[in-house]
């Protein structure tokens, strides 16, 4: 904690007095007081590792994010808390660090705290006609009486996508190490008029419908629209399609990885979808579309057995996002241990395929986040699970508050910016002087600032409210030419007439940066590969203000973070 500090006029920098280090084998990362889905066959056909200079450095491998010891991971496929153990089932290629057709299995890791993980043997591998070309994403459900089951998408030789069922061999085993495929697989086939059978995947976790029967939704692309198709079952074995979808839209991109869950406005407790939902609850429908996870808030109409959004927004570019950065295929689950709903997603590498082969690994999962509905009932809020704070001692976890001394200098807001906030972050970057902002953090900066990542805010005045732009600008994050270095961004509303403080929490874990703005109203995950880390050089961090209005820093807390034990081999 530091005393209040004011930052005014262009590029005012503030000392952030803390010391981090990556590991015993890497140089210190410290605060400075300076004032300045792939394709291409099975993995036998994967390219051989070329000579890549420093991307193979262990400094890019995260210290407390979830990833296997080696090889490729992508979607989180099933999450559950069972007999005192957290389970993460995930898309995994056991053969190499690329996504290769026909090789995708389900990896499986367990934890008691969502931070430290033990990798077990894969639970599903492609070995049946209904999944011979891949065991793709699905979900885990705990049935009445505590029986866990898994539904997953299998891909047959002709790229026909079907839904398969899996049971634990020994339900008394809290680690659920062995599973058996149901004898009647596939339990759901793509027999829907107009359905593209190669775009029919990713069943949700089950919930109880208005008639007491189980429901699931499956993402689907039809001739003229995309939908979350609705199915019901009495026993989770035999499924019947409901004659209307849970929800549909005329999007051109397929809805992948749908998620459907109940939330109470202003209540950060989670709701269990396998029991009756209390009055006053709303529902969130999330889908992975294009490159982002988007969602709608509405109600589950029990009479119509359908999701009805509170606001109909035809242009999906205006839909809210779970995360505005490198984040996809998220999955949530009800944590019965602590009565909360937890969500996390996949963050893919932003370097090139040959770099991934050279490293021998690709993909991470973000920090698990508690997710709940804001008190106004309009948007979801997210925050890293409390358990991650147990690691505070090695990498960087920074919480900072920016206090606005005046809001008179706010520039006018243009609603068209909502259609492409990334573009606006590029046009209104940290070096562009403004009224209120830009202000924020410069992180992972080299001595001469040739490399740096900027997480910053700008404040705009709309007709009746204030809109805050949050950006994570990676355009100068690395001097290497191969990484993808965009400027991510998103907007959120804030009642600055009542509250003048804007919070920012940023977790820095080598190549992963997760930032939470405005108490979790906008979340941005970024992947960065600065040479300053691999070269064992010093990386700096600054707070700054490049706006005309004074911004105070009344509170700053910074911790280093220990390495978590994440799927460590040989114990």
UniProtKB/TrEMBL annotation:
The Glycosyl hydrolase family 32 C-terminal domain covers which part of the protein? 388-559
Leader sequence residues? 1-25
Every copy of the Glycosyl hydrolase family 32 N-terminal domain together lies at: 65-384
Enzyme Commission (EC) number: 3.2.1.153
Q: Name one GO biological process term.
A: carbohydrate metabolic process
Database matches in InterPro entries: ConA-like_dom_sf, Fructan_Metab_Enzymes, Glyco_hydro_32, Glyco_hydro_32_C, Glyco_hydro_32_N, Glyco_hydro_beta-prop_sf
* UniProt cross-references to Gene3D superfamilies, sorted A to Z: Exo-inulinase, domain 1 (2.60.120.560), Glycosyl hydrolase domain, family 43 (2.115.10.20)
- What top-tier enzyme class does this entry carry? hydrolase
Give one Pfam family. Answer: Glyco_hydro_32N
Q: Which UniProt keywords apply?
A: Disulfide bond, Glycoprotein, Glycosidase, Hydrolase, Signal
**One GO molecular function term?**
fructan beta-(2,1)-fructosidase activity
Q: Quickly give the catalysed reaction.
A: Hydrolysis of terminal, non-reducing (2->1)-linked beta-D-fructofuranose residues in fructans
Q: Which CDD domains match?
A: GH32_Fruct1-like
Q: Which family, according to the similarity comment?
A: Belongs to the glycosyl hydrolase 32 family.
Protein known as: fructan beta-(2,1)-fructosidase
Q: Which organism is it from?
A: Aegilops tauschii subsp. strangulata
The beginning of the lineage is: Eukaryota, Viridiplantae, Streptophyta, Embryophyta, Tracheophyta
């Amino acid at each position: 904690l530091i005393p209040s500090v004011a930052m005014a006029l262009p590029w005012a920098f503030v000392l952030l007095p803390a010391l981090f280090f990556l590991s015993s084998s890497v140089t210190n990362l410290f605060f400075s007081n300076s004032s300045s889905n792939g394709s291409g066959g099975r993995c036998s056909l994967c390219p051989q590792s070329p000579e890549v200079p420093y991307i193979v450095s262990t400094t890019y491998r995260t210290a407390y994010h979830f990833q296997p010891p080696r090889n490729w991971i992508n979607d989180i496929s099933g999450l559950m808390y069972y007999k005192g153990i957290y389970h993460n089932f995930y898309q995994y290629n056991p053969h190499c660090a690329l996504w290769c057709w026909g090789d995708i299995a389900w990896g499986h890791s367990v934890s008691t705290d969502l931070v430290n993980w033990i990798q077990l043997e894969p639970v599903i591998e492609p070995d049946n006609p209904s999944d011979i070309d891949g065991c793709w994403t699905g979900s885990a459900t705990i049935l009445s009486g505590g029986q866990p089951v898994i539904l997953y998408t299998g891909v047959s030789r002709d790229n026909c996508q079907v839904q398969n069922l899996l049971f634990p061999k020994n339900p008394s085993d809290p680690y659920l190490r062995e599973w058996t495929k149901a004898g009647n697989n596939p339990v759901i086939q793509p027999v829907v008029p107009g359905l593209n059978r190669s775009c029919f995947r990713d069943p949700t976790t089950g919930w109880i419908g208005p008639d007491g029967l189980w429901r699931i939704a499956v993402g689907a692309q039809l001739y003229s629209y995309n939908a979350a198709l609705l199915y019901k079952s009495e026993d989770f074995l035999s499924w019947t399609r409901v004659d209307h979808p849970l929800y549909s839209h005329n999007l051109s991109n397929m809805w992948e990885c749908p998620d459907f869950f109940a939330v109470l406005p202003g209540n950060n407790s989670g709701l269990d979808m396998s029991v009756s939902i209390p009055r006053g609850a709303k529902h969130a429908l999330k889908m992975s579309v294009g490159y982002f996870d988007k969602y709608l808030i509405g109600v589950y109409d029990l009479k119509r057995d359908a999701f009805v959004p509170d606001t109909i927004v035809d242009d999906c570019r205006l839909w809210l996002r779970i995360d505005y950065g490198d984040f996809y295929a998220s999955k949530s689950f009800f944590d019965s241990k602590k009565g909360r709903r937890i969500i996390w997603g996949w963050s893919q590498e932003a370097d090139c395929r040959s770099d991934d082969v050279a490293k021998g690994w690709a993909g991470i999962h973000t920090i698990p986040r508690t997710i709940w509905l804001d008190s106004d009932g309009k948007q979801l809020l997210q925050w890293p699970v409390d358990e991650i704070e147990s690691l505070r001692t090695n990498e960087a976890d920074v919480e900072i508050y920016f206090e606005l001394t005046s809001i008179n200098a706010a520039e006018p807001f243009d609603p068209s910016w909502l259609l492409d906030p990334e573009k606006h972050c590029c046009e209104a970057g940290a070096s562009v002087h403004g009224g209120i902002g830009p202000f924020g953090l410069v992180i992972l900066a080299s001595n001469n600032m040739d490399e740096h990542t900027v997480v910053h805010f700008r404040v705009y005045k709309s007709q009746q409210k204030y809109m805050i732009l949050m950006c994570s600008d990676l355009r100068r994050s690395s001097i290497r030419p191969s990484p993808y270095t965009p400027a991510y961004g998103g907007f959120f509303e804030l009642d600055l007439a009542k509250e003048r403080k804007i919070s920012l929490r940023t977790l820095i874990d080598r190549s992963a940066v997760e930032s939470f703005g405005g108490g979790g109203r906008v979340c941005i995950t970024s992947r960065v590969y600065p040479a300053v880390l691999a070269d064992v050089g010093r990386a700096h961090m600054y707070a700054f203000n490049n706006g005309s209005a004074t911004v105070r820093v009344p509170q700053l807390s910074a911790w280093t973070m220990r390495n978590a034990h994440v799927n460590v081999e040989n114990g």
